[in-house]
């Protein structure tokens, strides 16, 4: 395994500024391999969760890089031959020991912390995600803010929020933090931003989960806000520094918001809002969900009304309603996520085609292998999906590779 992992002293030196616990040789290589997996596997990859859970991160990494031809790793993780083949095809091209070491140095310079399950501050609630739980978290600020014993509520909603939605979000966030609740959200424009800002203004603790690297604030217009969140709470992501936020990663980020929170409240949401995706994940975990009603004529509240009408969400009209959600035992609502968090995006595309599209550029041509590596998928699957997207006119093929078609101009 020494040909895959760095020498223990190199790993320990690179990791020491990023972790709070002492590192012996074995633990240093274990944590290094855990960090490496956040470079190899895309968020929510259940196959990665199974193999790492079965073998440990270091052995699992070695088996993937070497190909695991004897089948022992595949059998231990209870994977089919095809699952193993596909996994190796999408992970191995991303492996680069030097890149992981360089990334750890970037984290050190940016004062980013690496949180792994071995750390006492690891949020135990993430275990409810099973094999889809993150293998590690990259954190700006105080990692301990993610596991404080205080109750946590997610406040999420539309980016294009109305004055009504922003007012309600502000009222809820202010009253909740005054009663010791930690506000969790995604730092987006609209409802998320209001919830974070008011929580900070009220002297409370708030945590933001990002879809890209924590050292590159997104949206950029919230760079100052994200910095303020990190100063008193935590900004976290499961993808390493330097990672770009993509549509796929936003959807997977939503499961972390839901898992870290004991209840999820949707303040405003259109019919296909990403907030419904977060609510679906919360319901899959058996967490209660609430929705704020709006004017029946408001498209910005159509998603909230759908949650109330079709999915048994609690009607939220005050902070007391949210506190009741946080204190009431939840039942299993496994039927909800099958129609919520698995919903296609507004383009009607599947998760895989979304990942392929995110991995492409409008300006430059990219080879199939490059697109596959960026998307974290096998070259065969990527090629097949590219063909379908070409038929739809979403992508163009040329001698130099593939390029995403520009979005049509609105009249």
From TrEMBL:
Location of the DprA winged helix domain: 346-398
Stored InterPro entries: DprA (IPR003488), DprA_WH (IPR041614), DrpA_SLOG (IPR057666), WH-like_DNA-bd_sf (IPR036388)
Superkingdom per UniProt: Bacteria
Span of domain Smf/DprA SLOG: 114-326
Gene3D superfamilies found in the cross-reference section: 3.40.50.450, Winged helix-like DNA-binding domain superfamily/Winged helix DNA-binding domain
A biological process term (GO) from this entry: DNA-mediated transformation
Protein family membership: Belongs to the DprA/Smf family.
NCBIfam families: dprA
Protein name, as recorded: DNA protecting protein DprA
